[in-house]
Specification:
The structure is a homodimer. By secondary structure, the first copy, chain A, is an alpha/beta fold. Chain A has two domains: about 160 residues, 3-Layer(aba) Sandwich (Rossmann fold); about 100 residues, 6-phosphogluconate dehydrogenase C-terminal fold, CATH 1.10.3660. In chain A, about 50% of the residues lie in helices and about 10% in strands. The first copy, chain A, is built from ten helices and eight strands. Chain A has an eight-stranded mixed beta sheet, with helices on both faces. In chain A, helix 3 runs parallel beside helix 4 and helix 6 crosses helix 9. The longest helix of chain A is centred in the last third of the chain and has 25 residues. In chain A, about 55% of the residues are buried.
């Protein structure tokens, strides 16, 4: 069942490319046109059948029924503003950025059918050679409407993610950014900072624990510097909350307070169990 | 080829039990006697054939050729001191604790053939039901002799770990504790603190990144409170180093210094690549 006919994916990296793959596989859309600032990416996407056509000019959005903005976060607003003057009136536009408040607030003003989305299906791998079919199946997609969001566009976009197998959760952009600061952006900052704390000559002795803890430190620096900056207010609060927990650890260690240390570790273990 | 004849394993948890399993499988030792403060554990170990005999009194070490101290770290020194008066003169004693300076310094004074060991083969799972054969194969074992260590005992213990498939690395106890503070104890502290920072109601939205980052937060609180306290001097320094990196992150975010942020993230990614 086609939900949209002509679609344009701007940015054919891990998320954009994998989306193309699954939308086609599940026959949810018609013709897919891909755009990327990296010509190599978009040509490769065409070659392996993720998209039908490659384009280099944003003008191709003119007859699109759905445009997916899947570029790094800094460019999403720029491109959104540019295409707002080129799209059809009823064209639905979604983005897949990792922070939502700035994007949704700016783009919902100029695009009548804009719907902010954040599929929690990324990975530390990026780029065209890491397309993966089925990464949205069983994952969560947060949709972040605001007061301006068109309800029919929202309904169609919800349906699209559900058909891809995602569990859809609706949050305000503000709430989304507050939560993501803790569950995603803070863990990334800690992983980056941890790698930068450990002397290179110690790495040979690392065990599985360190590897798991720092897997996300291999995330793309360009993508992630933009994500972190785009949510810096919430992230700074999250870092401060974390620092207070770390200060408590230091105090407990200095005082050899085994009883309180046990309590802290037990609370962490109990909460971790809930993550599955 | 038997390296030791009669051996006693004190503490039949994950490491002690798995050691028994592999020592027997590879015919590296003769009769294995197991001791545990948990009667259930030691009975289960006997039932599944990890040990030949179970015992409740430390007196069984009297005719042992090798004693393995595999209890939580706090008890290692206590039990080591106790058995020092009961063992044969040529009995080799090893421990498998995660910090080494205090243990090696105290036990090498009273046990002529004491050799401190730290197999990097643990996991967040513990206890008798998590025995695993082959966990030492391909892993690293750090052996930490000091000036008092008997060279023949050291040679035999090295051989034992090599026959189990471990890569043996020799470090002083002091160096071991400094390094482990960074590559193991600090990551655990961060994982515990991160879990305690995140509000429980946010957990439903977590993705794979957070799960990986906090896997070790499910580690046993009793075991880990002791490990952290036993290496608190080095750990406090490691936490302070980490805090400086975190302060830099805050500064960079406050100043929206994208260029420096990119550099920090690139450095982390490069180092993470080396971890494999």
């Amino acid at each position: 069942m086609k939900i949209f006919n002509k679609i344009v994916i701007i940015g054919t990296g891990l998320i954009g490319g994998s989306l193309g793959l699954d939308l086609r596989k599940k026959h949810l859309v018609g013709k897919i046109t891909g755009l990327s600032r990296r010509k190599k990416n978009v040509e490769f996407s065409k070659k392996i059948g993720v998209i039908d056509c490659s384009a280099t000019s944003l003008d191709v959005v003119a007859d699109a029924d759905l445009v997916i903005l899947a570029t790094p976060i800094e460019v999403i607003i720029d491109i959104g503003l540019k295409i707002s003057k080129k799209i059809k009136k009823d064209c639905v536009v979604i983005d897949v950025g990792s922070s939502k408040e700035a994007i949704v607030s700016k783009l919902s003003r100029v695009i009548p059918n804009f719907v902010g989305c954040h599929p929690l299906a990324g990975s530390e791998k990026k780029g065209v050679t890491n397309f993966e079919s089925g990464i949205f199946n069983g994952s969560t997609c947060i949709i972040t409407p605001n007061a301006k969001t068109n309800s029919q566009a929202l309904r169609k976009v919800k349906l699209l993610w559900k058909k891809l197998g995602s569990q859809v959760i609706i949050l305000t952009p503000k709430k989304h950014d507050q939560i993501l600061a803790f569950i995603s952006h803070l863990p990334h900052v800690l992983a980056f900072a941890l790698m930068n704390t450990i002397s290179e000559k110690f790495l040979a002795l690392s065990s599985g624990g360190l590897k798991d803890s720092t897997r996300i430190a291999a995330s793309d620096p360009e993508l992630w510097s933009q994500i972190l900056l785009s949510n810096r207010g919430n992230l700074l609060s999250a870092i401060s909350s974390f620092q207070r927990k770390l200060d408590l650890f230091k105090l407990v260690l200095r005082n050899k307070n085994n009883k309180l240390l046990m309590k802290i570790l037990e609370a962490a273990k109990e909460k971790r169990k809930k993550l599955g």
